[in-house]
Amino acid sequence: MSKRARRMNRRGSAAVSEGAIVAASDSRGGSVEAFTFGDPEPVLSRATMLDMLECYHNQRWYEPPISLDGLARAFRASPHHSSAIILKRNMLAASLDPTPFLSRKAFAGLVQDYLVMGNAYVQEVRNRLGGVMRLDHCLAKYARRGVEPGRFWWVAGYRNETEFEPGTVHQLMAPDINQEIYGLPEYLSALQAALLNENATLFRRRYFENGSHAGYILYATGDFADGDVDNMREALKRSKGPGNFRNLFVHASGGKENGIKILPIAEVGAKDEFLGIKNTTRDDVLAAHRVPPQLLGIVPANAGGFGDVTKATDAFFELEIEPLQSVFLELNDVLGFEAVRFRERVKAE
Questions:
Q1: Exposed/middle/buried for residue 235 (C-beta within 10 Å: 0-12, 13-18, 19+)
Q2: Crossing angle, helix 322-335 and helix 104-117, to 10 degrees?
Q3: Rounded to whole angstroms, how far apart are CA atoms 200 and 205?
Q4: What's the farthest any 2 CA atoms get from each other in the chain?
Q5: Predicted confidence (pLDDT) per residue in 159-178, tens digit
Q6: Do you know which NCBIfam families this protein is assigned to (predicted)?
């Protein structure tokens, strides 16, 4: 084998790198042929895509490293993705002890922005003497951090930007390992799973809406009277579109056994592993959000269930909600007075 193998010349090597089929030896019959297809794919190209994104600026404000509009639209891509975020928001809002400066409504908006966008912005509304009257919630989707420290901009559209009064806006951000200007949400590793979950649902919905999924081959080999084949063909045509899933009756007098066979092809032509995709992507999303499944109303597949929901709630509150509370308590240090306060939670016996 080694004696017959020959080296490829430069031309052959170049052809191989371009994806062509190249023979290892074209001078001897029956030689081994080597071929390759597809371009080289760097393993880390997509994994490090966010690392190369920079927060560039236009001399006034920095742009986020990831599309905030895309994060907003992906919020409702998967029911488990949005439900996990809403659960955390509701539990945090319920644990708040409102102060004269911060209402529960404004706080709920801050929490939702922080969980979805990785950033939350609060604006001081001051009186004529310069004292703080209340704290308002600024939508993180349109807020931008200024190039100069302490300055923030409201960018709701092209040429509709407005600068906030310096020193009146404060930012809470989820830490990122690549930059310190904007925060990034924790669920980015499961964002593709949430989008795949949505695509699987849309594909299955369109599959049933198109009305062209009879899913079988009617194989007839028997003897039929004149016009019977045409009648069957017309009946099959009427089975598509609105009113499909109808039954078809065929009577062949004097026909033989197995004269008419139905060969199902739906398993091959439309196999998309719908349940497998839905369950796998759901688990990925829940793992990213670290939410127990019983808190989201998921029906257990086994008879044993998910365990005691009260204990799961206590553990979830201690491991997830309390650390999030500490994030918003940082506002007190920035403002210099107590604007955020939480009630002490009593665990269920």
A1: middle
A2: 110
A3: 9
A4: 102
A5: 788 999 999 999 999 999 88
A6: portal_PBSX
